[in-house]
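quick one
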Amino acid sequence: MRITAAEALVRCLEEEKVEVVFGYPGGAVLEVYDALYFNKKIKHVLTRSEQAAAHAASGYARVSGKVGVCIATSGPGATNLVTGIATAYMDSIPIVAITGQVPLSQIGGDMFQEVDITGATAPFTKHNYLVKNAGDVPRIVKEAFHIASTGRPGPVLIDLPRDVARKKIDFTYPEEVSLKGYKPTLEGHPLQIIKAVEAINSAKRPVILAGGGVISSGAHDELMRLAETADIPVTVSLMGIGSFPGEHPLFLGMAGTHGMPRANAALKESDLVIALGCRFNDRLTGGAGGFNKNTKIIHVDVDPAEIGKNVKVDIPIVGDIKNVLRELLKRIEKRSRKDWKDYLEGLKGEDVVEGCGDISPLDIIGELYEQTRGELIITTDVGAHQMWTARYYKFKHPRSFITSGGLGTMGYGLPAAIGAKIANPNKQVIHITGDGSFQMNFAELATLRENDLSVKIILFNNRGLGLVKELQDIHCGGRYSQVHFGFLPDFVKLSESYGIKALRVESKKELEEAISTMLKEEGSFLLECRLTIEARVKSLIKEGKTYESHAGSLG
Amino acid sequence: MKATLAVLVENHPGVLSRVAGLFARRGFNIESLAVGPTDNPEISRMTIVVDGDERVIEQIKKQLNKLVDVIKVSFIEPENSVSRELVMIKVNTEPEKRSEIIGIAEIFRANIIDVSRDSMIIELTGDKDKVNAMEEILRPFGIKELVRTGIIAMNRGSKCIESPEQ
Ligand SMILES: Cc1ncc(C[n+]2csc(CCOP(=O)(O)OP(=O)(O)O)c2C)c(N)n1
Ligand SMILES: [Mg+2]
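structure w/ thiamine diphosphate:
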């Protein structure tokens, strides 16, 4: 049967079992949208901007574990996708982005809405394609899904010129991919695994550092077995949150510049760090203040380029974390490390909030935890509210904390929540945002309503850019430059204008009931919490040592 | 530290820009880059000379390997390989200096491929040291233009750099 390349593209999406795509039409993708018009199997969610479509695809991918798909037109549609693609790249999220392009015969002529999107996105896609032959569409789509979802996951972009989209081809979907230059190593090297086992069995003060790789490889059960068998405390990077239950006695909390002092101390004072699928990013190592010279590091990652990139590693293991942990577990001996755990327990410290008004941010997160106990999905935006959520909510399940870690993209959370809710309609999806971030993508409230999705939004309104203000306190001697909003909308009315119920709370005593009302609401809901921008959380450690939690890093 | 990499890549348009872009955005230094198709027209071979410490050179290899269009990255060890570069030098030739320059070219086994009233083009093939030496000797005469191909290199003996079988 002969069909157009655009129809073939949609058929390929069906072959890949794509249930939903997020997108926004335009002239250069007319053919693709025309093909979608006739399609009955794939749901299309029309977001209010292409950036949101990419974030929604990312939220969907993170919750479902499948590849998220987004579509945009050429030129401005494609450039609007860019922030979403880069966000997905930095967090290793599998998405396939499809863009329309001006006709192949006209490329290079600075045509209307022409932009070199494969050139623009080369630095932050895992791979990308400009389709030149219509007959290549099935192979390219097959490869794109394969590359996006295997090895270290990441975004792949397919740019389809209009004239190519219209050409007719004979459709068959390839069964396999054959890529000479792409063969991820999934099994760890047996000798390296033996070395790692020996190091773990003989360590006195080991600590596990779990990153996002544990979640993407689905290795949370193996992580639990390793921690419990060998009695090793666990800390996580921002991306690793959810890989180990927050209530577990071995859990130390998040490490890094915004992390728990106890977790950072554990990394610093350990004799063995077992790093799983994390990349020792500056936000992590900055908090630990560098490692001890005598600390050995085992680093397991599916991406060989991550090993040895930021820190010197003693035992590198390239492979899929789940596979590697299974091998390790065959030889790990049972241990009890009471002294080490007791020592770390002593560093637990107590958090105090300074400078807040009637509500402290921890009250909100604490109350949310009381009423949900980890049985939800939280998406966040970027700012102080994000760091507070990461530190204090006790996440229980993998794929339940969805945040922009690597790029720190304000505006990520609401569209990501849309994707999350579609991926898992039975779970309560809560979006925690700030007044700054929310204003970047609140147009997606319309997408929520249009698709009858229920997302609960908790808006931490401190009338400004809290995290940046904190940085200006630390780095600029308190010179506050452009961090206070002189005008803000009435968020409750704004929400109501979209037909979304909303409440505002200004004191702690209203919180319990407000959160309960929000959670019971069937549709979406917005809860605005008024905070002061001066609120700072600090950890007090025994012996009077004070650690400030958010100091030093750049937002 | 310098290292020479032989990089087999898919012979597609756009691959060169991916490789060059990678070097630029990761702050890697390229000393020299030469590229052309292999005996298999689907595969091109790049010879890239890079500069950096051991950690950087390791990263360069790993990051190149991450590009889907890159099929294989191998190091070429200076001791066990031959490397060549071709250079063309357009040099000032005042009439009284002409025979001296021809003499130099002969010593280097270089070819004179163009002659005009006041200049000559000399073509030389050799490893980097030889090319540099010739350049130095010709400099006093006045080099008007110089172009180099970049180094290409191959392991000695029967050891080959081949695309892995599918
Ligand atoms: C798109 C984007 N622009 C700018 C920044 C820099 N930045 C980091 S946090 C922050 C403040 C966020 O304000 P808000 O959402 O109100 O959160 P708060 O810190 O007040 O809780 C800014 C501007 C960013 N991370 N992303
Ligand atoms: Mg704010």
